[in-house]
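Discussion board: Methods & Data

I've been asked by a reviewer to show the raw model output for two of the constructs in my manuscript, not just the figures. I'm not sure how much to include, so I'm pasting the format here to get opinions. Each protein appears as its amino acid sequence followed by a line of discrete structure tokens. Is this the kind of thing reviewers expect to see in a supplement, or should I convert it first? Here is construct A:
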Amino acid sequence: MQADAPVGILGLGLIGTAFSERLVGADIPVIGFDIDPGRCAKPRENRGTAAASARELADHCRAIVIAVYSGAEAEAAFADLESSPARPAIICTTTCAPDEIIRLAKRAASAGIAFVEAPISGTSAEVRDGTATVLVAGDAAAIDAVDGLLDILCPQRTRIGKVGDASRAKLAINLILQNNRATLAEGIVLAERMGLDGQTFLATARQSAAYSRVMDTKGEKMLNRDFRPQSRLAQTLKDAELILAEAARQGLRLPVTEAQADLLRTAIAIAGPDSDSAAIIEAIRQRPDSTEDSR
């Protein structure tokens, strides 16, 4: 297929849309597809085009970026990709369980499709501005073949070994990130209950030994109750459950992450599944034993 052929985006949620915008901004033609017909308007809004199926992406694109919700959705979509006689390279950015991504890679190898594992560490806003990090794993030749495309999609990246290793690393990274976010939420609520100004506290915390980047990405959103999504609560809980399931397979219990997953479930009940992950703070602000009035 020609080097100037379009790039396909399979999955037009927050991350897929951000990828589409980066490609269009680099003057690379984009074709997008999502099982939700309402989302298929997004590529047109960003000067791309929409496909009628995943098979159509495979027929017309030189590479396809999979950015769907879950490993199960990625595996379901793969059947359509395999049905095409064309063999575009596949870059899978979906956060999957290690066994899911390994199955996909084996299917791709059997079909003669170059496959790169590339989960993203960062929000859609960070993808959009090029500050997210992609964890890249797989065959060196397959990675090298899409190196220029990865430069555009996610300039910050690290290679991490064989297929499956990137997903393993992503789950462990997400564990730290999610628990940092929940701890920041607790710290903000405690500071405010003790009578401190939230903005002053956040600025102080950023200069302290407790600093983490989540203060920059989620602190203001927590203070302002700005829960417009850059990453959704439902997806965060999905990833937390992947983390806990993988830990269980390793004979390991993660009590902090178990508690954090319960907070996510409470936050979803309060703020809704599509609210930003910063809304975990509402699970602390509005606990049944809380004396603060709900706002």
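Construct B, same format:
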Amino acid sequence: MIALALVVGTVFVLTLGWKIRQIVTSPHDAPLRAVTLCLASAAASFGLALPPAARMIRSVGGPGAPRLVQNAFAFAMVFWLMCFYLYSATDPRRGRIRARWEALPLGLTLLGTSLATIAAAGHDTGGRYESVDMRVSALAAFYLLADLYLVYALTMALRWTCRYARVSPRPLSVGLWLMASALSGIAAASAIRAALTVIRWHGGAVAPAVTAISGHIIGVAIPLFLIGVGYPAARARLSVIRLRRQRRRMYHRLHPLWSLLHEAYPQDALHQNRARPWDLLRRPQAVDRRYYRRAIECRDGLVRISPYLGQAEMTVTDLSESSADLLADRLCAALEAQTEGGEAPYDAVAVAVPKAQGLDADVRQLVMLSDALHRRTSSPARQQAA
């Protein structure tokens, strides 16, 4: 149980921290603000249920205070989840109006549970749900109000979640279906507890195993909900990390071509701020900037040297390994011819143009030429011939 609490707490902190970072950059984004408040309320509800926090609240407000505070944040969690969908599905004005109307049942539930907690003060021992004496009408009213509101709010949120999941692409749809599973589980558990509360209120007996089922469902559903919220972002972050690792490798593989052209055309170097090595760890986007800059400098250098490479139809190619080796030999010869001061025999043309569109496809062509230059300079036979 302790290990599960640590895992869930870690997921809470990471997911909430990620959302807070997003809302700092986009403070006027209403859907983002709603989902951030939803996660913050969930984190508060989970944290305040832990024994140290519960004991502190109990010492201030009495035996029923921890239960009231924890449930209040649970109500806020599902309310802000509904608001997220209301803000996302409608225009801002209509979303605000609908959210205000949804605040009415939330306020009534908070008022009712607060009054029930006060009324039950003389009979409330602060125990768990299964040990509470439901024959005390105030305690039964507290749990009935809480569970009925959760069933209502979760059902509304579940309807919107399923609707978005059907039309969303992966990985967002995967996260939404995980959230839908969690919401349906919590709603089912709340409905079960509402029925059990009515039975116990009227003096009926309930098997402990039946009561435990609802607790186990909630125990599984809350981590599942957090995984669903964080899954799309985690997948996106992993994709970004893989892309940046690939671009870092491409950046280093471009070095032979870049250094050769940079030596010939130092004036083509793009301006760059001198960064300390740890800046690449602090600002990962610097990898992208360096990648773009090196690719552009290589392309500019090839355009400059292209009049010395040969006829246009020989230079505009979608390179293979063999043609890259041939072009590398011609590139070195062209640089030597330019150094000798000879007049360029042809017009400038594009060199090693890929069939596919996009910078990454262009860089793959440049990398093939750069690898060919590396093989040319590292081959012992070529070095002896030179």
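Answer (T.O., handling editor elsewhere):
This is acceptable in a supplement if you add a one-line summary per construct. For B, something like: The two ends are 71 Å apart (CA to CA).
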